[in-house]
Amino acid sequence: MWLALEDKVLVLLLIAAVVSLALGFFQDFGTPRPVGEPPVDWVEGVAIIVTILIVVMVGLLNNRQKERQFKSLNEKKEDRSVKVIRSGIERLVDVHQVVIGDICLLEPGEVILCDGIFLEGHGVCCDESGATGESDAIKKVPFEECVKMKVGQAGHTDCFVISGSKGIESVGRYIVIAVGQKSFNGQIMMALHGDTENTPLQLKLNHLPELIAKLGTANQKGIAFTQILIISVTLIVVPVPEGLPLAVTLALAFATKRLTAEKLLVHILGSCETMANASVVCTDKTGTLTQNVMTVVAGSVGIHTKFVDKLEDNKARTNVNSESDDKTRKHTQDFSIDQSHLNRVISPRLKQIFNEAIAINSTAFEDRDQETGETVSLGMIPFSSKRKAMGVVVKLPKGGWRLYLKGVSEILTGMCQRHVVVYKEGREKKEGPVETLEIDDLTRDNISHTIIFYANQTLRTIALCYRDFDTWPLRNAEHSADDDVEYDFLARNLTLIGIVGIEDPLRDGVREAVASCHRAGVTVKMCTGNNVLTARSIAIQCGIYMAGGVIMEGPVFRNLSDQEKLEIVPRLQVLACSSPEDKKILVEKLKELGEVVGVTGDGTNDGPALKIAHIGFSMSIAGTEVTKEVSDIILMDDNFSSIVKAIMWGRCVNDAVRKFLQFQISTNITAVIITFVTAVASTQEASILSTVQLLWINIIMDTFAALALAESSTHNDSMV
User: Fold this and answer.
1) Predicted TM-score (pTM) of this structure
2) 366 pLDDT exceeds 60?
3) Which range has the worst mean pLDDT, 127-131, 216-220, 583-587?
4) Can you tell me the distance from the alpha carbon of 525 to that of 260, in angstroms, rounded to the nearest whole number?
5) Catalytic residues, which ones?
6) What is the DSSP string of 235-273?
7) How far apart are CA 417 and CA 694, in angstroms?
8) Counted domains in the chain
9) How far apart are CA 455 and CA 624, in angstroms?
10) Residue 304's domain is classified under what CATH number?
């Protein structure tokens, strides 16, 4: 309620109410009154106070409604339990009851709620991207083992368990060293507390009552003191659009309701109209511009069959025509095909091998047949950064065993000696095994050319291979210290099935949304942790990176001087390899240049940037609790297109307020002239219109008329 009373229009009315109420009591009870005349002069002051209460209560009820929407989210957020070991017994306790020195259990998929030192466990890895921005999994080892590691040997390995991160592999134990506000997650939450800045619309409207107050008290001389005050109060109340705060609140409430239907959950009411004035939007890439799902978009089956997803729209994805002409082409048998038409050229036997190479060689594969209960998978080769590949050995239905491998294409293709054959017209032997050919120098050049071509398009390439065995376990096999067959012994004489290029594709409608922002005068800047090549490719596809723009890496931007940052920021379109701190610096510099900045974030460490921005967008699906807590608007679908909808509705609110002001001020000008002229011309020095009558006109008549303006729907013209 006190926040609502900070509106300068209401403050001006409150002052007028106090003066009017004091004058009313003075005239009713402090001066002689004619016989039979009731003491009702105090009613005007009470009427103004009632008006203020109406406006404040409407805003208060609307804010309460928004708080109820977040109540369910907060209840789930607060209801957290942690597994601890006390007195040798495993217990499930509330997170608020965890103390320093407790031994906590770390399990896969669990969000860590306390800081700690890792004690024991085998192969434990944590995803700290939500807490620190580090995209790679961090392996956890005990403190003693971590100390023994040489400098530069640790890599993505440490002994610290950070609150806000998540366990992703194996189980372990850690000792708690920090909880609550002292933990990593708690310190970030405390740093987010601060005063809320006025929105651009509030700053503009705050000038109005100041001007009215000066005009209303200027030219009243030569009249009795009480009459001066009465007429001054009346002249102040008349031009003030008392219905303005109520109209703004109703327009924002209506926009908030519509935004909820558009999958935008508004946390702070004023953020709707703030987006109307946005001039820059700093957005993440993964999950916001893209789908955050690695998808096969191009590749080759065998050597010559080059497939592309939606070939007609992505002809640049195929390297069949990348050489000059047919006369100089080395690989004349290559042909392009749409990914959806692959079944036309691949035989059923090769299709089965292709599918098994992907589906069976997966961590989600069940190693037992659901019908017979027979063991299908005889051995797993887990992925490691050393091998850069993963594999599985399976028993074939007609006898024999097969090893499926998939991994980094540059490494696995070098281990292949043969490749499957696919003909353009779909010819293949009807019986017998899948046809294969030996890889010669020309074929190996084709493979190398394909991998480089996809890499230049910022696609990650994965090779699919297999090898058949007559017996298992293998005779005369080389074994490791753990009595497992050596990987190098298995990964020989492989047969290449194909190479696929994967990427995180754009969300539907992103290109159109970015184009709408540009037409509306809103600049879109992309901040991502990806490398420059990947960031540049996505920015071009989205339409963010254009001629004359600048792409810069985060460390380079961070080390610039303040003056150099201010000079480069207007032309900076893509900030690659950036950290959340780089994003925060970028937002600060944009604000120094007078821009109204909107920022998207999903990780805990994005909290400070979201807090200092004029408006912060958090992700409902991928976002952490910290970002949701500090943000102004939550994107329920994590889609950049929803930001455009927020801008459109914000501008719709501004249009509604502008129309309301035009409507109400046109009536108030007439009332001011009548009040002033009649007060000057009257022998009794009294206006023909009383304060109560003017308030009735402004609050009842004008406000109901303004509701029609607030109900106006958004349209695409607001983005032009």
Assistant:
1) 0.62
2) no
3) 216-220
4) 26
5) 284
6) HHHTTS-THHHHHHHHHHHHHHHHHHHTTEEESSTTHHH
7) 92
8) 3
9) 32
10) 3.40.1110
